[in-house]
Design brief:
Elements: H1 3-20, H2 25-28, E1 35-36, H3 41-50, E2 60-61, H4 65-82, H5 92-105, E3 112-115, H6 122-132, E4 136-138, H7 148-162, E5 167-172, H8 180-190, H9 200-216, H10 223-237, E6 238-244, H11 250-257, H12 260-263, E7 266-269, H13 275-286, H14 293-321, H15 329-454, H16 457-464, H17 471-484, H18 491-499, H19 503-509, H20 514-526, H21 533-539, H22 544-552, H23 554-561, H24 565-580, H25 589-604
Parallel strand pairs: 3-6, 3-7, 4-5, 5-6
Antiparallel strand pairs: 1-2
Helix pairs in contact: 5-6, 9-10, 13-14, 13-15, 15-22, 15-24, 15-25, 17-18, 17-20, 20-22, 20-23
Amino acid sequence: MGSADKEFVTAKIEECFRKNFSADADYAMVNPVLFGDFMLYNEIEEQKNAGGTELVRLYEDMTDYNKIKPVLNEVLEKYNMTNKAMNLVLFEDCLSHLVSLHRLMRMPRGNALLVGVGGSGKQSITRLAAFTAEASVFTITLTRGYNEILFRDDLKILYGMLATQSVAFFFSDAHVAEEGFLELVNNMLTAGMVPALYEESEKDGLISGVRDQAVKKGCIDSKDALWQYFVNKCRDALHVVLAMSPVGETLRVRCRSFPGMVNNTVIDWFVPWPEQALLSVAGVFLAEEDLPQQMRNGIVSHMVMVHSDSMERSAAFLTQLKRYNYVTPKNYLDFISNYRSVLKEERRKVDSLIVRLDGGLSKLVQAAVEVDAMQEKLKVAQVEVAKKSGEVKEMLVGITASSKEAEEKQIVAAEKEKQIAIDSVEIAATKAEAEAALEEALPALAEAAEALNDLKKEDITELKGFNNPNILVKNACLCVVIMKGIKEVDWMGAKKMMNDMQFLSSLLTLQGRAHRQAGEGREKVLCRPGIHHRERRDRFEGCGWPTQVGRGHPELQHRGEDRQPEARGRRQGREDAARGGQGAHRRAGAGQGALRDARRAQGQV
């Protein structure tokens, strides 16, 4: 059914009205024709919630779309609060279908056949109309293996609901899993009940539930009468809404096979959405998007143009190639949804690029600031580097000179090391000689102690009585003077020394510094020209203690050796080695330690 058919039928109806009801023809033919009883829907719901007396719904002329649209928008909001939300746009064509379907559901046994391509909004309008008419919506759910037996079970549930409330049974061509389903639906439309739906035992239970109500209304209390009352009650509360697609020959064949689909329903054709509907739908869906105001109308108009052009080209495609291409409202809704998805994705990409660009610019600004700061630091550092470079150059000159000096010292040290190695050999020989001298000094020490013990006080008295003693006696006494540290080194000084009452005991306790002075004094006194060493020793046997001390003293031996040229050379070599070998003390420590031990022993003597 197209617009030309609608115009033809409308013209015939107007002709009949003006011919038979000329007085009321103008009022009756006002377009649109909107009658219903939901204008006081909000007041009725508030009164019901408050628990007061329910207001009566008045069936009235609602004049135009602008008057009913706010009411139905509020109904839609309430529906979305208690049920799965529907994003429904109530444009004029949608309001016309909604009012017609609502009027049918408010009538007993009001059934409808909604004819339109998929995606026209038939199911959404049915659910909203049923909610407005205070009716429940029942529909089947197809599963794998769904057959007539399961369909009958669902119909039992439906009739159980009809016993207490008004129910809209929505059945679309997608629910026709088997053609036998339509035969059962046809029976529901024509007779109000599916044959053989209940067993006899099940019927008895249903009859018992309505017996009291039926008897009050004057129904005969018999099984058949009560069953018929139950069927009529269910038929009055049942509103079968069939949603079929006109595509192909299927609908035509089904209408011929099951005449109840046409004879017992009101047919409502869902034609393609007009331009006003397309504009309204696009405007509502794009209202949530942040679009420039000067471009919003252009975008909506472009969407409408694309959808309309697609419909025109599909019609031309059918004319030229005899092939169908259906452009449905569902395609238009998908077009809008895809545009919103692409817009969101592209904006996300643009926002990401903006963030990246902003981050890059921030980094560049930060880098510029840091470069400026680094330039300032670099200038200061360059001055410091230049200063340090000059200092380093001066340091390198000093290091070069020091290196040269160190190399020279290293050469001298190497030569000294060689000399020290030679001196070490000589020190070892000196060590051997010192050990030999120590061995020789030990007997002399014993002899000196023995000679001192033989000395008596009478010998001292006799000795100090000499005015001019023998030179050897005199010299021996002068040695003792020197050993005791007396300044007058002559015979008078010696006599004063011997006059001391403690002289003999002081000789026994004489030690320490007197040893070296004894050696030097004895050398000074005895080692005079014209006196041979052997002769001096033989003539001085009376003074054995000073003589033995002189023999044991190493320096006295050295002075005796000075008379031999070879001895003087060896001694000079030892003294040179001692002066030049200060750096070799660590390597010659053993020899020097032995020499010190020998001298310490002689000092005790």
